[in-house]
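Typical record is below.
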Amino acid sequence: MTGGGAARTAGRVAPAGRRDGPPPGALLAAALATAALAAGCVRTPPPDLSRDAAGLLEQVRETQAKVRSVRGSARVGVSSSEVSGSLAAWLAAEKPDRVRIETFDFFGSPDAVLVAAGGRFSLYDPRAGVLYRGEATPENLGRLLPLPLPAAELATLICGSAPLLDGRAVAAEPDGGAMRLELAGDGGRELLWIGEGASVQAARLEPRPGSAAQPWQVSFEAFRRRAGWRMPGDAELRAPKAKVTLRWKGDLEVNSGIEPATFRLDPPRGARVVDLDPGADLPEVNILPRPATRP
């Protein structure tokens, strides 16, 4: 399978622990405040960032457009009410909506493969020998990692930035060493903390009440230069019922050109294929171990 050579020895995901801690916005503010105290001065945002909301949003869009695709091996951490731990993975993403995620067991063998492209998704469970196919809905994509997000948003996050709310920029103001940008639209409200090079350091989505979208928070750290662009090496995404962390390994490639076949998953020999009807629930897929039931 594509990316199999990038596998790393993986630890099994253990039963769940606690999920706590402040949101990324709070983490960012605390980090900025600590750095300012250590330096004995008040930090200010990079001077080349626009103080105009619309202008800052345009800078962010220009920066996001520079990263078209990424691929490489990573360590993925999962924490939810059901599972908690980390595992080895190989990921590829190409904007606007192409994603491939492979996870590996302790011995480096494929544990699961998920592919999304063009509004369709496939999920292969090697242990059960079943390939599921259907629409790339947030619910279906969330079967591998517990983050029910549309494919385009997932691709943007893997590419090292935050999805932007469809709306207008309503405010921009300094917040420690970053600029805080507020977007508002029919879908709700989004806050973004923008740093060096107009890169997103943290973001928080607050959907409109009654919206089908779920709130999420994301933070990025360990920025480094890849293919001339500033890319985060670590990411943390929190949704209402789960937290997922991503730490890239040294083989991360940016804008290197990904073969179209990477985002296609043909049924492996001998696999049973299950085509899901639109709107149908995906049967339980035990990709990650569940805690044992107590007597």
Remarks:
- The chain has one domain: 44-275.
- DSSP finds four helices and 16 strands in the chain.
